[in-house]
Amino acid sequence: MFVVLGLWLLVFPAALSAPAREQCTTGKNKLLLVSFDGFRWDYDRDVDTPNLDKMAMEGVKAAYMTPPFLTITSPSHFTLLTGRYIENHGVIHNIWFNITTQEKKQYYMTQFVDEYWDNGSLPIWITAQRQGLKTGSHHFPGTAATYQNEKVYKETVEPIFYNYTNETVWRENVNTVIGQWFKNEDLDFISLYFGDPDEVGHKYGPDSPERREVIKKVDRTVGYLRETVEKNGLTDKLNIIITADHGMSTVFKGENVNEIILSNIPGFSLRDLKFHMVDYGACGMLLPKDGMFDKVYNALKGGHPNLHVYKKEDMPERLHYSKHPRLLPIILIADPGYVINGFYTFQTNKGEHGYDNEVMDMKAFFRAVGPDFHNNLLVGPFESVNVYSLMCHLLGIQPEVNDGSLDNTRHMLLSNGLSCVLKAPESILQNLFIGLSAVAGFLLLVFVVVTSNNVYKRHKGNQSRTEDTSDEDETKDDLKQTTF
Ligand SMILES: [Zn+2]
Predict the structure, then answer these.
(1) How many CB atoms lie within 10 A of CB 326?
(2) Does the structural domain 21-250+355-418 have CATH classification 3.40.720.10?
(3) CA of 191 to the centre of ligand 1 (A)
(4) Which residue of 28, 57, 205, 233 is surrounded by the most CB atoms within 10 Å?
(5) CA triple 187-66-45, angle to 5 deg
(6) Taking a C-beta distance cutoff of 8 angstroms, is the pair 451, 481 a contact?
(7) DSSP string spanning 5-28?
(8) From ligand 1's centre to the CA of 308, what distance in Å?
(9) 388: helix, coil or strand?
(10) Is pLDDT above 60 for 451?
(11) Residue 359 in this model has a pLDDT that exceeds 60
(12) Which CATH number fits the domain 260-348, given the four candidates 3.40.50.300, 3.30.1360.180, 3.30.565.10, 3.40.30.10?
């Protein structure tokens, strides 16, 4: 009987691991990552957003998300895609530049410079493809580039002079991604990008009526997106993350504003520079000519009350913007509301970003909904560097080396980050170990019983030669010994 019990435990060892299996993430649901460029964390505070509210009721809403520094579009989106800080992934600016030839490529043309994007960190599309998934990207920064000789399987790169603001085109893009790519072509992961509210935020400022209107448009688009998901029967199979790359801050203007114009700072001259990246908003970088470093640095340091001047190696560590070789040796950061100009005020925008990521105006929006997310859950803030490990977990893929952790987002998930895919082999091994231990324990017990019985018999035998004990008594004692 005990042999049978032992074998049963070996074959059905789960009988010993008593609690029922907890909920886990299967890695089989699809995932959509949506970015609304420049959607500040609090843009829905003064606008009716019924669709975003519904999504929060049915999913997870973060208080806000902290983007990486530099808080601008291409670097921040590449952090979402790789889970790396900007100094580690190397897409340090929206603009590609060459310090020798003085050449610069603006945001759009930089999208096509492969070596700018492909410099060591793989975006999630490529990692997922290498692990057997089908991925796509619609207008997301980084889509056009080739990474280690691979491209995202399905891609749409916006044409030059693309109108980022047309709501009808937004709906067509939703139809393509949901109806065509997810439903008809069975893709597993897609990133989808919209150029607003960034464009309106720059042009009119974050506190303008125009910004409030564009948030209504975003809200309608989110409603349309979720309706389209439902119509295509994907609601229970698709996780959706809606987020952004950075926020937006009002640019100070007027007579009382002491604008930052570098050439007005005593002792500073643009002629002392070999190369510079100024007139790009909140942040600037300088490469002084040989022997001019101290002169340039000393002139600018303390040269304007709202300008922070750092040697590259002295940048605050929390910004993670000092280690990459592409960064120039002097880095300038303006206070919120100020922009850095070279010769004259070059600024027509009423809103800007690119400031320190601790500034609340730079914080980004984050919502998520789908079969793996909790309902009606408000979570605290976290850094955007953690979105990558969350996405890898949802897709059931092994992440590349990254700077984030699932520990910072696992509380959003019904599974609390427990993976069915990873748990299965672990639990088989664990149960096998328990089963084998039970059999070994049983065999040890049999051995002890048999051995002690033999010893007892020998002892009794010796006794019976000296004492006149009946066979009947011996049998009774024997029975006692072998009863459990
Ligand atoms: Zn942006």
Answers:
(1) 16
(2) yes
(3) 15
(4) 205
(5) 90
(6) no
(7) HHHHHHHSGGGTS-SPPPP-B-S-
(8) 22
(9) helix
(10) no
(11) yes
(12) 3.30.1360.180
Catalytic option among 73, 156, 221, 409: 73
Rounded to the nearest angstrom, the gap between the alpha carbon of residue 220 and the centroid of all alpha carbons in its chain is 25
Residue 433: pLDDT band (50, 70, 90) is: low
Query: Residue 136 is which amino acid?
Result: G
Ligand 1 center to 115 CA (angstroms): 21
CA of 35 to the centre of ligand 1 (A): 9
Give pairs for 437-443: CB < 8 Å, separation 24+: 438/6, 438/9, 438/10, 438/13, 438/16, 439/6, 439/7, 439/9, 439/10, 442/2, 442/3, 442/5, 442/6, 443/6
Q: How far apart are CA 16 and CA 394, in angstroms?
A: 30
Q: Residue 288 in 3-state DSSP?
A: strand
Contact by Cβ (8 Å): 141, 80: no
Q: Is 73 one of the annotated active-site residues of the chain?
A: yes
**What is the CA(72)–ligand 1 centre distance, in A?**
5
pLDDT of residue 420: 92
The pairing of strands 366-369 and 238-243 is antiparallel
Give the Å distance between the CA of 198 and the centre of ligand 1.
6
Q: Assign 3-class secondary structure to 375-386.
A: CCEEECCEEHHH
Span from the CA of 169 to the centroid of ligand 1 (angstroms): 19
Distance CA(151)–CA(117), nearest Å, equals: 12
Distance CA 221, CA 218 (A): 5
What is the model's pTM? 0.84
User: Which residues does 265 contact at the CB level (< 8 Å), separation at least 6?
Assistant: 299, 300, 303, 304
The residues spanned by each domain of the chain are 21-250+355-418, 260-348, 421-455
Which tens digits make up the pLDDT trace of 129-145? 999 999 999 999 999 99
Ligand 1 centroid – CA 338 distance (Å): 18
Is there a contact between 235 and 369 (Cβ–Cβ < 8 Å)? no
